[in-house]
């Protein structure tokens, strides 16, 4: 359980750290180096993840991640199994790689010419307290 977009990079020695990654910033009346790819991003995700490492331990955090991946697989498999007139109701946009984030990405099958779209489905699901992101974007959008 971490915040999406949280990533860690750890350098063993400063000599391997590019000068483009480390910038000097004014901090609490002095100067400090900030090692970041984008200084404007909040660090809360890293703090949450670090807290969970401390609280759960490495094996506990690993079990948590394995469980999240199993949940994502169950949702993905469920969406794949939904058919309408013998055709898949959803097109899967992710390949279900097990070495990635536990995220499922799908869209309604445009071939079915349904009377509702992804956003309508998102609103209907939220009425039952299931919150999923839905975007009015197609593959031809930039």
From TrEMBL:
It comes from the Eukaryota. It comes from Chrysotila carterae. This is glutamate decarboxylase. It catalyses: L-glutamate + H(+) = 4-aminobutanoate + CO2. GO terms for biological process: L-glutamate catabolic process. Its cofactor is pyridoxal 5'-phosphate. Belongs to the group II decarboxylase family. One of its GO terms (cellular component) is cytosol. GO terms for molecular function: glutamate decarboxylase activity; pyridoxal phosphate binding. InterPro entries: Glutamate_decarboxylase, PyrdxlP-dep_de-COase, PyrdxlP-dep_Trfase, PyrdxlP-dep_Trfase_major. Keywords: Lyase, Pyridoxal phosphate. Pfam families: Pyridoxal_deC (PF00282). PANTHER family: GLUTAMATE DECARBOXYLASE. Its EC number is 4.1.1.15.
